[in-house]
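Sequence and structure are no longer studied apart. As an example, we show below a sequence and the tokens encoding its fold:
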Amino acid sequence: SAGFLEGGARGAGGEGEEFGDGALGPVGAAAGSGGEVGEVGKVGEVGEIGDGALGPVGAVIGATHPEIVRALRERMPRSWFLLPGVGAQGGKVADLGPAFLPDGTGALLPVSRGLGACFEPGDEDWEAKVVAQARALVEEYRGR
């Protein structure tokens, strides 16, 4: 099922046209198709909405398929990308550079599984391990 962006989202940096609710829909491997680039069809036509801002329609794309991310960014230059699969599932931030716009926006990387897996139940220093893992992911992103 698609996720929804509620409450009048604006483009990156709060600039551009104000939109109503938006939606993120699964594409390629995230949609259970196996991840073939050709299977994304004409999805780019939907994403090209707005006046230079990020539009209200985005895509959920598995971070373990950077070739699909690259192909979709070309087709959807003003769409949000939600990229699950970084960290514990094997996706690497370094492979996802094409997902981001030149200003560093345009993609969201949920890493809850990666953060939850960086400590063992009962670890007294679990908070420090989560902070260290989050910092490592930020540094990986910055070095992309």
